[in-house]
Amino acid sequence: MKILNLYSGIGGNRKLWCKQHQVTAVEINPEIANIYSAFFPMDKVIVGDAHKYLLKHIKEFDFIWSSPPCPTHSKMRIAGIKVKTHPHKLSYPDMALYQEIIFLKHFSNKNTKWTVENVQPYYEWLIKPTAIVGRHCFWTNFYIQQKGIKDEAESVAYVHKNDERFGFSIQGAPLESMGKHPEKPLTNLVNPEIGLYLLEQAQKGVKPLFNFTY
Q1: C-alpha dist (Å) from residue 131 to 39, 180, 210
Q2: Res. 214: pLDDT tops 50
Q3: Choosing a second label site near 127 at 20 to 30 A (CA), which of 83, 133, 142, 172?
Q4: pTM to 2 decimals?
C-alpha cells in the first residue's frame, strides 16, 4: 500500500506497519523528522506542513493517517488552564482537525481509506467520531470494530522518569526546539498497537455501519 502518514512525529503509529508498505511521512519539525528517519530509513520523509501537503497530494495514496496537533482540543489543557497550572495561554481550538475530516470525506479517492486521530476534546464534538479507542478519537471512512487497548496514562507518566516508551528512545537526540520538555516526542506517541489495528481495519475495506454527521 501507498501510505501517507501526516504529522508523523517520531512514528509511534507507524512502528508495526510492515516494511512492504510505501510510506511517506510529513513532519514540520526537522529535529523530530530526523529521528523518524533514523527509526524508519526506508520511508520517504518530508519536512513541511502536513495540512498543506494533504491539500496537494490527497489523490496519491491508498491509506491516509492524519494526527493533527491535539493540545488546543485536549481536556487536560482546559483543566490545567482553569486551575492555573497549565503553562500555555488561552487559545482557540485549531480547526485544521475538522477541515481535514470534511476534506477527506468529500475529496479522497473512492478506494482510499483514511483516518484522522485526535484526543477526546473538552467540548462537544463538532463532528461525531467513528470510534473511540482508549484516549483516542478516530474519524474514518471504514468500520472500526471496537477493541480494548490498555490505558496509556501509566506509560505517559513513565516517560517523565525515563527516556523510553513503546520501544522508542530519543536519548542523546538533539531536540533544542523542545526547550524544557525534551520528552514531548515520546509523550505524543500513538500506541503502535493502535496504529496497526487501524491499518488492519482499513485493509478489510468494510464501510462504516453508520456515517458520522456534522
Answers
A1: 29, 34, 11
A2: no
A3: 83
A4: 0.87
Q: Answer for the pair 14, 195: CB distance below 8 angstroms, yes or no.
A: yes
How far from the centroid of its chain's Cα atoms is residue 25's Cα?
11
Instruction: Report all structural domains of the chain as residue ranges with CATH numbers, in order of start.
Output: 2-204 (3.40.50)
pLDDT score at 178: 65
Cell numbers for 101, please give them.
475530516
Strands (E), 29-135: 44-47, 63-66, 113-119, 131-133
Q: What is the pLDDT of residue 119?
A: 86
Q: How does pLDDT run across 130-169, given as a tens digit for each residue? A: 988 877 889 999 988 776 666 565 566 556 555 788 888 8
Distance CA 43, CA 22 (A): 7
DSSP 74: B
Alpha-carbon torsion (209, 62, 36, 121), positive or negative: negative
Q: Cell digits for 143? A: 468500520
**Residue 102 three-state SS:** helix
The Cα–Cα gap between 23 and 40 comes to: 9
Q: For the purposes of burial, counting CB atoms within 10 Å of the CB of 12, is it exposed (0-12), middle (13-18) or buried (19 or more)?
A: buried
Nearest to 12 by CA among 196, 181, 200, 179: 196
